[in-house]
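WARN no homologs supplied; continuing
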Amino acid sequence: MKTLRTLSIQTLATISALFLLVGLPAVVSADDGDLAWMGHAEFASQSAIDVVVFLDDYEASNAVFKASQDATLSRAARVEQVGTSLESFRSVYDKPVYDYIDARSQSAVTRIWIVPAFTARLTPSEVEELAAMPGVKRVVPNVRLED
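OK structure emitted
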């Protein structure tokens, strides 16, 4: 069984900045569940692919919105509450998706709490099975972004 690792502050800051600066649509495919990227030469020949698995985030968005609207709290307290809400949020699909990934991943599974997501290393057929699971919004390659 793989261990669940936590992300460093630097990694979280980078992920947050990326989402704030360019938005999620610039990072992933516009079509939910689109696995066309698997046909690209870079991935088609690989026996296992590093992926990011995004879960449906509707519930998380609602929880964060509610946490941010508490007018009785100072701004700093609301920011803390939003962070706590994001970090503690677990989708109803979290456990079955995590269990599937954990049983198959060829690397340690990492939970990304800033958005409901996991990283893992899976075979192409496992990626296809995972993408079809309830609660999985999309699966994208986990590629290194360089300038």
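The chain has seven helices and four strands.
OK
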